[in-house]
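Continuing the batch. This is chain 6 of the set; chains 1 through 5 are on the previous pages. Same settings as before, nothing changed between runs. Recording input and output for traceability.
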Amino acid sequence: MPALSPEARARLLRLARAAIEARLAGRPAPPPPDLAELTEPRGAFVSLHRRADGALRGCVGYAEALYPLAEAVTRAAVLAATADARFSQLTLEELPEVVLDISVLTPPRPIAAPEVTVGVHGLLVEHGGRRGLLLPQVAVEQAWSREQFLDATCRKAGLDAGCWRLPDVGLRSFEAEVFGECSGTPLEPGPDS
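Output for chain 6:
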């Protein structure tokens, strides 16, 4: 899939922040930007990190292309701020203290464990109604080997490490275009801010 334009990236970041702010302030969500490349259904995740130390503050998304990209990002941003069970709900006062990253995903496809490339592939493990997903950047941030990444994805699904070796465990990979407020994407106010 072609990379998003710098304009699309900037608009998605503004949209995600505006959607979080609107939800926390009790206002309606902002309308999606009028940009054709944001109307294609895509999987996407929004990650929130504390500005001070980079610690994760929320991360939610959609592995499958269930919504047009702008809508997927809006939904994921709001859920990352309000419904990530690992964290308390973000407050309006905290919002300026977090930075956003967006990961736009390629469609997941089956992969064999030896084909997994750390730093390129994100992983989705499924077995017995359980499902775990880790974005490609997580393995790099943690300096994991391929096996450590596979094990961690199993644990994320609530399964035993090493379950990826079992023949009835589903293993799929995806790639992600990752960008954020600290990655040089301009955030000047725009028409859809």
